[in-house]
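[Meeting: bench + compute handoff]

Bench side (C.D.) handed over the final construct sequence. Compute side (W.E.) agreed to return the predicted structure before the next meeting so the bench team could plan truncations. Sequence as handed over:
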Amino acid sequence: MNYQRIHDAIIDRARNRTLQGYRERHHVIPRCLSGTDKSANLVELTAREHFVVHKLLVEIYPNEPKLVYAYWMMSRNISNSKYIRDYKVSSRDYDRAKKLFSKVSSIRQKGKKLSDEHKQKLRDAAKTRKSRIPIKHSEETKQKLSALWKGTTRSIEDRKKISEGQRGIKKRPYIHKKKPEPVQCPYCNKIGSPRGMYNWHFNKCRNK
């Protein structure tokens, strides 16, 4: 498939029209490939066209990380005050974008060494991070885990590391939710929970 020809056809169509309503600005030559912000390098596209064009750019330039990142962000279909993503992303496109992004991120991080300061910041963040919601295992899983660890003992060094790792982590307290007091409708004398009663009784009661 000639991805470049399809890409150019969409761009040429965009140059010879005026869009009404919501539109997105697109750099014909991406900025990561030395594209400029001049009007000759800018076109207006619909949200769907913008997504398709970036999908094509990833096929044309598969080794450009910034184009892969842009494609991944558009595949997540996140709307905000600036962008209105009204198109639908297929599961195949989402899977493709995620795999490409994971591959590019892995290559960028490979061989990268963190400074001691960065490592310390990660440790401090882990200590203050809220504890996760406990996972509920089935009885069968519990028995398998019990059999797996039965007869094994941790070394003193491992116990010390676990103890130091748990130090400073705040456990989330269990909050008992108080059941709301029932209320009574003054018109029909029915008693029930506040949420349902205020929706169907009091000023909305049939006996009013």
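W.E. noted at the follow-up: The two ends are 71 Å apart (CA to CA). C.D. will use this when planning the next construct.
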